[in-house]
Amino acid sequence: MFKIRRVNDVEPTAPGQVNIKKRSRVPGVMITQFVEEVPVGMSTPDFTRKPIALTIQEGKLAFFKARVSGKPAPRVSWARNNGEIDEENYKMVYDSLSGEHSLEIPEVSVEHADTYKCFATNEYGRAVVTAALNIIELGYKKNRALQQSRTAVRELPEDFKKALRRTVKMEPKPEVKRVIDDKFWELLLSSNKKHYERICSEYGVTDFRWMLKKLKEKKLEQEYEQEKVVETLCKLKPIEVKGYRAEMSLKDPASQILNKDGVLVPFDGDAEMKLKQVGKKFMFSINDVHPKDAGMCHVEVDGVKIFSTELKVPSADFLVKIQDVRAGEREDAVFECVIPQPMKKINWMGKNIPLGQGDKYDICVSENMLIHSLVVKDCLPSDKGIYTAVAGITSCSAWLIVEGDNDQNLVGKKKARKTTRAGGGADLLKIAEDQQAKLQKERDELPATAKAQAEVEAKAEEEVEAKEKGDVNAKADVKPTEQNETTNKAEAENKTKEKTGTQILAKEEKTEEKTETTIQAKEDKTKEKTEKTKEKLDPKIHGNVEETTKEKTETEIQAMAEDKTKTKGDTKNTVSDYTKDKAMPKSTAKTKQTVKVKIEKKDDGKDENSAKEAEDEESEEEEETEDAERAEVEKRKDKPTQTTDPKVSNDKEDEEPVLKKKKRVRKGPPVPDTAMDAGVYFTSGLSDINAIIHTEAELICRLSSDDCEGFWYKDGKKIASTDDVRIVEEGSYRKLVLKNCKEEDAGKYRYEADGRKTEAMVIVEDPPRMNKDDLTKFSKPVIVNTGKDAAFVLSFLGREPIKIQWFNEGEELLEDTRTRIERSSSHTRLLLLKCKRKTSGEIKIKIKNDFGTTEAVTQLTVLDKPTVPLGPVDIIDGSANCIAFKWRPPKDNGGSPITNYILERQQIGRNSWKTLGKIGPEPHYRDLDVDHGRRYAYHIRAENQQGISEMMETGDIQAGTKAYPGPPTGLKILSAFKDCINLAWSPPSNTGGTNILGYNVEKRKNGSNLWSLVNPSDESIKEKKYAAKDVIEGIQYEFRVSAINISGVGEPSAPTEFVFARDPKKPPGKVRDLKVTDSTYSTLSLTWTEPKVEEGVQDEAKGYFVEIRPAENLDWGRCNSSPVITNSFTILGLRSMVMYWVRVVATNEGGDGEPQELENYIIAMPPPVRPRFTDKNIKNFMVTRAGNSMRVTYNFQGSPLPTITWLKDGLPLLKHVTVSNSDTSSQLMIALSERRDTGIYTLILRNIVGQESCTFEMRVTDDPKPPGPVELEENVPGAVLITWTASPDEKRDDRLHYMITKHDSVKHSWQMLADRLFNNKFTAVNVLPGRQYKFRVYAKNDMGISEPSESPKWEAKRPKGTFSLNLPASKDCSFEAAPAFSVPLKMHKTPESYECYMSCAVTGNPKPYVTWYRDNISLNTNSNYYITNTCGVCSMVILKVGPKDSGEYTAVAENALGRVECSTILVVQD
């Protein structure tokens, strides 16, 4: 019994499980992993062979097979998408020999068609794969209408003749008011005329004349409305996916432009939808297009619609995406993908650059347009990068990795072009075939759906007609109303046609193909049955059987043809039985012929021209038949028949539409006695062929009959058999064989038989060709010596112009001093002068013309002496009597094999070299003539037929060196007892070049430095284990082991841990006082006390294991692989907020003790802590320039993790502000700051314990704009009132202020007059008359200072008076004076590493001498200080201030009349 489950049922996840999605190596397989880490040696389930999609005939056995892998072995189950799998209809089989799981479905039916899933499940995961089952129905089950037509009651022609009437009174048809969607007219008004038909078919409009008339009226109305708001409008261009573009000139530039459902679309900006204007061009675009954006888009200017279009978003996706490709250098790389819907072309991108077809890239599309591939030819390292396939609005990307060739022989040479390809997959073809079958199935279902809808609508119309007929019969006693019924029926038919015409026309072609194929298949099958029946039956009844079978076949074919015609919507082409009776013979034959010709066109697809001509003939013959029928009906109308039967009226109404149609479709089965033979037709037409000149070409076609005479024509002229032209008739096949084709044989060929014809073109090509003998001679390798010339000659045939190219190892050869290329119309010659060894390789010639390309390849070998033999030299033996060594052959043997190696030897310390001679072609040598302890060097040269190579010198090689073995590895103690300790180890990795003879084991007591040998000194240990019995009970020992070879004892191994010589211990007891000391979201810290020791019951613990399990899991897992010796442990890697159980197990040499668990589970989280900010200096004010990025980071602590909220001025942040949060920090970032970002920002941290917040002010500003004009006014003498217009930025920046500077005509310099003014006026004082003043006003903010606004010149005029001077009598005076500081030193605060400048002014006569001191130490002689005294100005410069320069500085000025001091303090800031 197996489990029943539907595909859509979701398998529940067990507690503690996770759902990790993985991708299998097998395409189409999805793996779900249930655990975070799969244990070593275990694996999740996977499919090594997946079930494939199946298409099978109804009634046969269907089965799916799959192979699975995984450890432990997975369980396999099956499910289907719609329905359940039971034991009655399905059988699950497992073959233990092949390991295959099978699902068998005996006698499949239509109900079994579905999507099946196979599940493989074990405790670590589940793998699932799907496969589709398609059922091919047999017989005529899908065509119910055909079955109904066979069993329907048919009227005889004689009964129908009586129902005819002489005249029909027609009343005018009432005008039907059409209801058309407004979107239809909006699209037509803005579309090109070539799109009218498509738009009409989408909205179901069939009356084109009415549509064009109505459209003209609406265009006039639209132009009248547009003239109100738009001056010009042109170049309307809808663009798929991206948007649309238009050029228009607005009368009012301030007009509002609406778009996309009447919404005002912003100009530019970062909005999803935006409108961009460049001159008169308006471009509407949509960023990040989604399928929801599809629909109508309008352009409205002040309520007037200017332009409408429909945005279509292609719905394309990828069934199989492109995969990463790893290609070798000079190899081709292939990217392939599969899409669900056929597309002629998708876009390819390489490194964000569009790619196109060319020499570097080859873009291919499969025949079904589902598989798209990109081939990157001749990959180079520069081609490495990301390649993207774009289909509609979806895309997929993959890496191309180009790996270089590590072959040392190709270093410095151009690598040869490779013919292999990397990437691509064979499974894509199968996936594409399955998708194509799925699409074909959907297309096949469309006609049936349309037919069912048409039947429903026809049935509704019949009910309406029946109701109308009932009303007519009720009034029959008063006055017949045949005319009204005729009008009502015509109106009903028109409604039906208008409603269903669009859908049926859209599916007409597919239904026609399907129906015609079915008819031909049925006819062929019936003919085959008839022939078999002829052979079995008696000749007397043979004729009756054949006639009956033929009659049945023709009946079925005619019924299916009628069903096809009904699907196409030609239900109104009904004629009266009288017309059928007159025109039946001719019409029936032609109808059957037409069906057969069309079948051949669909099945073979070889002769489109002949099929087209057959259709033309069919149309001409049908028109002739319809003209005859129309004339016959007119005659009948002239001979009226008197009848009052209502049935006559109805039949006459059916006759009326026939006169308006070109084609006639028969209702009901054909009359048996009027069926005629279809005649001869082509079952296979001619196909165009391309023939090579001077070769044989063959045209072939097939007729439906063997006995039919036909003729061949070339370009309209009849052809007869000649020596070069042979006409063959083999049964139903007709062949035309052209021997030794010439250029004049090209043209159009036609075969005609029984009024039928088929045509094909013969194209005679003359591609480049080579003579086989010349090609064989050319292909033979060419061998030359270095410095010699090499020539290659090849003749060819072909039509000119011909392009000839020569290549050497894939690189094209061009003429130069060493290369000569001769070309003619029939041969070419390549001459390589003074060939070098590197010229060796493949020589290829490529000849190309308009008809094709041919290539030939040969090999060039240039012989030379070999290169130097390669090192390093490997020493095989270095004993006292022999030196054996080997080396590597030369990198290049010169084109011929190495014949000998020539050796020379030198003993170290001597100057002479001894020739050892030639030793043969093998790269190794054994020297037996050596002295023990001596060192030797060797010269090695390689020799071939061309000469001897350069020399390679070896290093010093000593004879008789000893090679001791290395230390053994893996020494461990297996067990310990009071009288024996068992050891084991592994042999050393370095044996010293010889075999290991044995081992020595040594021991050492704890506390001693002496190692003693355990085994006897003359008896080494042969095995890799040993039992040390020379031990004393209760003593601790450690051991080490050494290996022995022919050279002696090698190095000892690392010692073991100390072990007691005593019997095994008892396991320890439970640990005590187990508790949790700390916890975080990912860690947990534990402490405990060691267990009690009870003699004979439980011994002392030597270590501890910590085990943990999630609350939902029952399996314990150890956190430490080796025991810890401390009484504390920290568990890492926990999942946040998950419940865990924890226990500790004590262990010693006797084993593990009983575990001790915590009393309750533990949640992985730290102890609750109120949120708090951890930054030392928290900024509360920030200023940034507009357009710059801004980033603010706050660090915090809190447990559990607090929720983080950012606010700006108490409101949520704007969309362009980005917030990045982690467990311990939060960052606010603005990529491009704007002035609107100015405000108060608040960060709120909140958890269950409490809440904390932090606020800072951010100001986004820019360099201020200058203030307005400056005006001057003098209200008080000696004072000027300065006023100015405020800066434009004053309203947006509350920290903006002003600075004023002054310039007078005496000082000629600008001086600051006032700063930090927050108003727009200032009074300048001390304005002296007679001087000219100018004032400048600056605007300042946190970012900087603006350009100045300068005032006009200001001058206060003063009256001129008479100047008089009375000089007093002069007196003798002395100019001597004591020193004095007119300008003292000022206090300085200077940042570290900056320059400090101190100055003061000193007066005195005679000139005083100035001395500088720091902390009472003179500085005048210190070179670290630059001291000057110019005209009484004393200055000192400290170039780079440091902390040591802080202190008190004193300047002392003294002369003969006195002494004076001035001090200051220098503070150096960090």
Provide keyphrases for this structure.
single chain; 1470 residues; alpha+beta; six-stranded mixed beta sheet; 12 helices; 96 strands; disordered N terminus
Q: Kindly state the mean pLDDT as a whole number?
A: 78
The amount of helix comes to 10-25%
Shape: extended
How far the N terminus sits from the C terminus, by CA atoms, comes to 85 Å
Strand content: 35-45%
Characterize the quaternary organization of these chains.
single chain
**Low-confidence regions:** 1-12, 152-161, 165-169, 239-244, 474-487, 489-519, 529-626, 631-676
Number of strands: 96
Number of helices: 12
- Global structural class: alpha+beta
- What does the radius of gyration come to? 53 Å
Largest sheet: 6 strands, mixed
Please give a structural write-up:
The chain is α+β, with helices and mostly antiparallel strands and 1470 residues long. 18% of the residues lie in helices and 39% in strands. It is extended and about 160 Å long.
